[in-house]
Amino acid sequence: MADDGMLLNFELGDGPLTSQVKFKGGRWRDRVKAQRSAKQQHNGPSSTPPTRDPTRPAKRPRTDDGDSHRYTKIPRTGDEAPKAPSHAMKTGQISSSLFTSNPTAVTDFDQPTVEEAEPAKPSNAPLSEEAENFQALGLSRRVAQHLATKLEMKAPTAIQKNTVPQLIKEDSDAFLQAETGSGKTLAYLLPIVHRIMALSLNEDGTPKDTKVHRNSGLFAIILAPTRELCKQIAVVLEKVLRCAPWLVCTTVIGGESKKSEKARIRKGVNILIATPGRLADHLDNTKVLNVGTVRWLVLDEGDRMMEMGFEDDIRTIVGKIRADKLLKENPDGVVLDGVLPSRRVTVLCSATMKMNVQKLGEISLEDAIHITASKSEMDKDAEGSTEAAFAAPSQLKQACIVVPAKLRLVTLIALLKSTFARKGSVMKAIIFISCADSVDFHYELLKDTKTPERPEKPTEESTKQQRNPHTDTTVAPAAYVTSPANPTVILHKLHGSLAQPVRSATLNAFSTCKDPAVLITTDISSRGLDVPAVDLVIEYDPAFAVPDHVHRIGRTARAGRPGKAVLFLLPGCEEGYTTILPAATPIAPQLYESTLQKGLASTVNLPTTTTSTAAPETTETKQTWTSRAEALQLHLEQRLLATPGFVPEDMEEAPKPKDKNKGKWSKQQQQSKGKPKTEPVNPLLNAGRQAFRSHIRAYATHVREERVYFDITQLHLGHMAKAFALREPPGGIGGGVARRAHKPSGSAGEKKGKTSGGGGGGKRDDDDGDGVGQVDEEAAKRMRMKMKMMMNAASEFNIG
Fold this sequence. Notes:
By secondary structure, this protein is an alpha/beta fold. 31% of the residues lie in helices and 10% in strands. Among the domains are: 170-382, P-loop containing nucleotide triphosphate hydrolases (Rossmann fold, 3-Layer(aba) Sandwich), CATH 3.40.50; 396-450 and 470-602, P-loop containing nucleotide triphosphate hydrolases (Rossmann fold); 732-800, no CATH class. α3 runs parallel beside α4, α4 packs across α5 (227-240) and α13 runs antiparallel to α19 (683-699).
């Protein structure tokens, strides 16, 4: 055969030729492992280990003890081997990788805290009784004695000391600015009550010949942004007016019956407390509302009213009051000039100085004086400095917990559990959350599902504590956070989507609760509310702006009382948020580990009737705080994944007679063949998904100056889903607000929805499989146009 010129050159090496072994059968993991070990035996030990990216976390291979749920870290040798972390996994069941792949905190938690030589003196406490008293401010002896004996107020605060004499002697407009909890409400109420009482009483307290009553005219109007604040101002004013029972005050707020409000106005009122929208409505439609005798117009929490979009209503109210002729005497012939102001006086109150407050001052104030708590700040303002920095009260202790997104929920429960671990340590706590959907979800998740047992014979104590029907869905005993010292903790929820009677009843229940209580609420409770015995404020979601943060933490440490505020922050860019927060004392950073260790040192009391429970603790398991955190997270996720409607036979304690549905699907879940049409979804799961969507949308509404700290592009949605006990983040986050209408089968609306969609456009955004239904496209389009025009976070997330 001829040579074709091809040369084959194979280098076989000096070693013997070995055939490659091919492994068959068994599991593919075992085959790969055996093939890898055979390859290593053939090539020999490698001198240089393979390089690994140092930024990636170490893998955790399975152990050979047969337990598929147990994981261990890869052991490393050498000088660079780190010590085992304090939260090393040693549990027998893994709910989720709570303690892995979390971002590293930037804050140095090992830095020693500087201890104060002396505890900070309260900055909003009343002054000493020897130095000042109410009678020395110019108030009548009758009012001063009533404050001292009935209300147990013997000395004024700093803002009251500077405001009361000014509003009694002068008739000029005023801008009151002081920190939260300093007594601004009484600062403007006492001069008004004193001067109205002077129409009926002499300086020595003897009655005059002419005495005013409820039909003598309307003398003062007080505007507040929220209904709760209006109710609170009315309660304070009613206590002050007990020394003058012939004077009457009332409220006109949204959510109440306009017919009953008109009846009260027609009957007669001297001081009116209202929300801007409802008052503007009455000025247009209620003819019996005569503002000719009005001498005072008070705008409380002016910055909040501007933020909520009441600028046009306030312009209308101020214009109509100023346009009406000022009467010098009332219809009864009582001369008003000389006792009451000779002009209409406007008082603007705010704890912060922002641009919208200055704009509101331009609308309502004329030649106003600036009154603050300290004389030095008033002198600075007289020199031309209009900016004043108002921080939280000096006796308020602030702390921030840097916690990863996956551990937020269990850390919150651990913080509440440690808070109520000692009897009498904390009576009331407030948790601020960004949106109403998240409030509803956390309330349903943390409440106890056991229905209270009714006594066979009503006792005297049970008749006093009758349940209010308005609070059936907003007040319930709490689970998870109870302790042997406090076996009963009452849970409350409050947000702007609730009906007004429900909101009023819930707030009253929280204020008068004798047991330890927790209020889960939105920013609707951040302004002006004075609830006694609030010792702790938790900002689970940071405020949308720094002034809102100041108002939130101002719900505690009021009138000289001590208080504590805790802020939850994510590791990373959010940690720099504390640098822009005003604080009289440094904000102490804390790592979540210390909170979990303290809160989960003992077992967690789970709800009594849940179908999913964590594994019981025994001496063999040796539960640690990490294992309890994992078991708690697993329990919460199983609660959301539990299928509703299907009642197992072993879970029903006392079946009703002739119960044919036990262990079966309900009729609504069955098709004609007897099989379930679709797998039912737990309502708690739907609530968690909706809360997650609303939370992410609310996260994007921080003010522009603070978005460098709250960057939504840095938010890990998968990790944040764990904070809502979800296994994976739901879709539809960017879908916006749409009105969903469930139409009955066979209706005209259903036929229209089938034909008008066009390629699925008319179907409901149901990518999570959380039910069936269709969207009213026209209603959704109108809602989107409305939201585009308003562009107000308060309207979308129901925080106002």
